[in-house]
Amino acid sequence: MKRRLFKITSIVFIALGLLTYSCADLVVENLVEPDSSKALANPSDLMNLAGGAFRTFHNAMQEYDGPALAMITMADQGTCSWGNAAMNDLSSEPRAGYVNNLTYPYFPVVEHPWGETYAAISAVNDVLRAIEEKGVEIGDDGEDTKMTQAWSYFVSGAAHGYLGLIFDQGNIIKWDTDLETLTLSPWQDLISASLEMLDQAIALCAANTFTVPENWMAGDVYTSAELGALASSYAARILAYSSRNKAQNEAIDWSKVLAYAQNGIEKPLSPMLGINYDWYDYYMVYQIYPGWGRTDHRIINIMDNDYPSRWPNDNATWNTADGLDPGEATSDDARLLSDYEYMADQAFRPERGFYHFSHYRFQRYDWLIAEHWYGTGNKPSFLVWENEMLEAEALVRTGNVAGAVAILNDPDGARKLRGGLPDVTATDAAKVLLRIYDEKDVECMDTGVGVGFFDMRRNDRLQSGTILHFPVPATELEIIQEPVYTIGGAPDGENVSMGSWTGYDGLTSPPK
């Protein structure tokens, strides 16, 4: 465990810019730890450490070298035949597992989010330790102590939650965790720890009045009430999306999800991207950049139910009335024209599978990349409408279908305001749930990492053979002297999907 202790403590210095390391460095003795305690005794240093932690976590989640690009293709929400970030490998048909090996070109898909998320956790843990254990006060006469404390619990809670959403297991590291006894815990325990810490953040926000520094949230000012609402929305998101299959999803405490969502955000989490605050959303950039990702026909079929939900595997046998390429789709949903661009030609490599082909790309956020390819402007990663859809789903699952329909039909909601769609008249719970998932697929495209993937996963709609989560990075397993493993192989409903999806046109994936 000695090498494990060094790795965790060394992350603190990375956040401070005081130390860099390579894999080989992990076996040496940590000689700079005493300097860490001196640096972190300074309240201004503690604020700086806390202030950058959410950016570290958020950038890692929305990063190119992360799971977001692979997840959107695995969910048949986006499509891409390029190999980058394991998009092609993990969305191939038939599906394949993840290669958990340092030599695998797309090993950063697991290594980067794991390391950066734990860096964020380590940073706020040092802050919480100074406050909780050492009684350090922050700001003039301690006026920023409660704010920094609430913020740190929020960051740690969100970070632990996403580790539980993405990986099959991980370390639960609270500020008072004994690193000498640290062991890997299953994803269910990571989710529970996440909610516990988010609840602590919510309680501190409710009991205190403060304002979060704008540079902590990329130019946006959050009051204590707004931070509490954001923590509530993250809790709703994490709990609702945690299940690996339909049975687990139905067993969730949906009354708890409902309570979180009803106390959730009233403004989107929409950080200012670019060099001014050092926030980036490369997941979105690569997904929409011309020549890269496209929108899967499954999403177009939601808006135009007669449009083929799959590109034919032989590039010829279309399920249209005349058997020909359908051309442009048509829809009563105004977002088909505002958010999605028709492309007559294909850019992908046919030898990698015609099923990757699509006539559409997502254009809603094109203005972000008009000036700089990395995106400049406020880009949402958590829409208020997503929170509303979480509330609507929780209402259905707690017996209030009419309440969910009222949210869908809200004239100020995205479905009506942006889509211009007629009222939902369904009263059947299953049909209303489908409308909710359709709304999220269309409206929440390219926002938060994995939204579409998590929804498909928990409803057994991911193609059979799709991995349901990622393994702990091989480098981490070697450090703690645990066997290196991968995830893939025969579908079991726990690690690998046993499911499928069917479009409104009757086509299924995988094809039957």
Q: Which features would summarize this protein structure in a list?
A:
mainly alpha, disordered N terminus, 21 helices, 44% helix, 12 strands, two-stranded antiparallel ribbon
Helix content: 40-55%
What gross morphology would you assign?
Answer: globular
Strand content: 5-15%
Return the structural class.
mainly alpha
Largest sheet: 2 strands, antiparallel
Integer average pLDDT: 92
Strand order of the largest sheet: 1-7
Our measurement of the CA-to-CA distance between the termini, rounded to an integer number of angstroms, reads: 50 Å
Structure explained in plain terms:
This protein has 512 residues and is mostly helical. It has a domain at 1-39. Helices cover 44% and strands 5% of the residues. It has helices at 2-16, 33-39, 43-51, 53-61, 68-74, 87-91, 108-132, 145-166, 187-207, 224-241, 246-250, 254-262, 282-288, 297-303, 335-339, 384-397, 401-408, 414-417, 429-443, 451-458, 474-479; strands at residues 78-79, 169-171, 184-186, 211-212, 222-223, 272-273, 294-295, 340-342, 360-362, 377-378, 501-502, 508-509. The strands form six sheets. Strands 1-7 form a two-stranded antiparallel ribbon. A two-stranded antiparallel ribbon has the order 2-3. Helix 1 (2-16) crosses helix 7, helix 4 packs parallel to helix 8 and helix 8 (145-166) packs antiparallel against helix 9 (187-207). It is globular and about 75 Å long. It starts with a helix and ends with a strand. Residues 1-36 have low confidence and may be disordered.
